[in-house]
Amino acid sequence: MAEYIKNKQKKKEEEMKDKLLAKFAEVFGSSEGAKVYFAPGRVNLIGEHTDYNGGYVFPAALTLGTYGVARKRNDRRLRFYTMNYNRVDIVESTLDDLVPLKKSGWTAYPKGVMWAFKERGMEMDCGMDFLLKGTIPGSSGLSSSASVEVLTGFILRDLYGFKVTNRDLALIGQYSENNYNGVNCGIMDQFSIAMGKKKQAIFLDTDTLNFNYVPVKLKGAKIVISCSNKRRGLGDSKYNERRSECETALAELQKEISIDSLAELDEEEFERYQYAIKDETRRKRAKHAVYENQRTIKAVEALEKSDMEAFGRLMNESHISLRDDYEVTGIELDTLVEEAWKIEGVIGSRMTGAGFGGCTVSIVKKEAVKKFIKKVGKAYKKKIGYYADFYVVKLGNGPKVIY
């Protein structure tokens, strides 16, 4: 059976490769000299909005992700094309037009990485033709932007011979998103994508970047992603506002206790010193950061002990905190989670990603998956007015060359 599944996956990848090269040839005239690449998306099992607060996260790379086909040119032109939008044209630019915060649509993500490489002294000596095809649902919170960033960095390393590690690719991707695209994201998304490992999640200390791979043994359960299909965008959401609130709360706490990040506190210490935070809203934001960090530590311990009941309970508590203290869920994500909690066989369910739309992640017993999708989907459509999409996902490796 394992060999059959492996061959089936290989055949599927071959078909995708042929499809991508054919489209590249159609768009750019030929596929001669082009190479095919892949970088995954990611799902965070628990540890939300802790990465920029110096805490732990527990993400994993997915088998969903972003494919890229690239070829060096003999001039300084950059030509971009995506297969994910209808009636799209080639977007043309040059290596001399890599300008931070310049509005350039989806191409801002690959261009931002090219700019970030240049900032680190690694300048491309010629342009490229670049085609993208994403299998991550749009605006889902599964890190399609970080997937494109890591993919671009991986391609630059391969085509131009830049001496960088996968860890470097994560840091460069984060730097580009912070400074080129103006989104103050933490390191989690890019790190989990660059460092992903099949069937394992990454227990990452975002303060030190020390990490451990933890096998995800679900024992008869599946990971189900529920996509709300609510449009969202980090740059124009309240993501940066939440980060600012936490930074202000930290500054207030530092007048009373010597800490460098909110994650240095445990629950007892937070309760003792929370009076230093003068605004109730900021107090709630900081409480989430502290308690979520401790939940993540406990959740990994539970998984290592094969205590899925405890892991699921911590997932549920995470969502409640994100809903009530951090206020980043909204009616769409709350509906998906609350309907999931009603289904027998659901071990745990929570929003994943930045929030404000996007997806939930649920661990569901195998025999309950069909019922879960049917009932949650029906209830969501009735309440929200449009459909959610569901994906039964597997955990995969980091970026790779396909051809």
Which short descriptors sum up this protein?
alpha+beta; Ribosomal Protein S5, domain 2; six-stranded mixed beta sheet; 13 strands; single chain; 403 residues; 20% strand; four-stranded antiparallel beta sheet; 42% helix; 11 helices
Structure description:
- There is one protein chain.
- With 403 residues, the chain is an alpha+beta fold.
- The protein has a domain at 2-216 and 396-401: Ribosomal Protein S5, domain 2 (2-Layer Sandwich), CATH 3.30.230.
- The chain contains eleven helices and 13 strands.
- The protein has helices spanning 2-28, 108-119, 144-160, 166-179, 188-194, 239-253, 267-273, 280-304, 308-324, 330-341, 369-384; strands at 35-44, 56-57, 59-72, 77-82, 91-94, 128-134, 200-205, 211-215, 221-227, 346-352, 359-365, 389-393, 400-401.
- The strands form three sheets. Strands 5-4-6-3-1-13 form a six-stranded mixed beta sheet, sandwiched between helices.
- β7 (200-205) and β8 form a beta hairpin.
- It is globular and about 65 Å long.
- It starts with a helix and ends with a strand.
**DSSP summary: helix tally:** 11
Structural classification: alpha+beta
Q: Summarize the biggest pleated sheet.
A: 6 strands, mixed
Distance between the termini: 26 Å
Assess the beta-strand content as a share of residues: 15-25%
CATH class of one domain: Alpha Beta
Unreliable parts:
none
Q: Strands of the biggest beta sheet: in what spatial order?
A: 5-4-6-3-1-13
CATH topology of one domain: Ribosomal Protein S5, domain 2
The mean pLDDT is 94
CATH architecture of one domain: 2-Layer Sandwich
Instruction: List how many beta strands DSSP finds.
Output: 13
Give the radius of gyration.
Answer: 21 Å
The string of secondary-structure elements, in order, is HEEEEEHEHHHEEEHHHHHEEHEE
Helix content: 40-55%
